[in-house]
Amino acid sequence: MITELIDYRSIPRVSNSDLTRLKEEFLGTNRFIGQRALQFGRAFHSHLLEPESVGGIIEQLLPDLKPIESGRLEQLTEQVRRDSFCRRYLRKSERERVILFTDPLTELACKARLDMVYTSPKSRNALILDFKTTSARTQSQFLQSCYDYDYDRQAAFYIDGLRHADSREWDQTRQIRFVLIGVQKQKPHRLFAIEATSIPDFVEYGRKKYRFWLRKWNEQQQNATPWLRQAS
């Protein structure tokens, strides 16, 4: 998992995370997320999507709190696996699928790594699932966090990534749904589900966001800004 993470980051294409860094640099802001929280989120994804590698992840990301964090990770992932909807798609979906695509407006080479994607060959529909650890205690709080953390931009970026994938695998796909699953970090570890594609203007607003920042990225690249040349 660590090797795959490094390999993905080394692909010289623009990711949604790159757009977040660009936004923070451009606006002179920095969305504060503690390093421990970031590490825990990464470890959670590994525990859920690649459980065979979780020992190495905990050792490398959370060495000081290994017994405590390992137990909490197990509680969170078990909560997800007990849910019938999540269990079904954990079994049927591709996990951590890397998508390479070209944005048709800016012609920038882009990339995305999807937590899970399920494609139905019969109905020609696709479902993207993305998991987030959250401090939200209610559905409405989790929905607000989706706007606060630009998950609408991520949803649009990933959906359009499938539509424009270099592999052309989803050219004939009629519908792409995007579902965000929030996993409460505190007990009782509730699950919150937001179907982004069913919320009016959610994806379209996110699309406007990512297109704006892709244009800014393109301008910065043309001006040869040093920090952007070093970005993954």
From TrEMBL:
What is the scientific name of the source organism? Answer: Larkinella arboricola
Tell me which residues make up the Putative exodeoxyribonuclease 8 PDDEXK-like domain: 34-218
Q: What is this protein called?
A: PDDEXK-like uncharacterized protein DUF3799
An example Pfam family from this entry, by short name, is: DUF3799
Could you tell me the superkingdom of the organism this chain comes from?
A: Bacteria
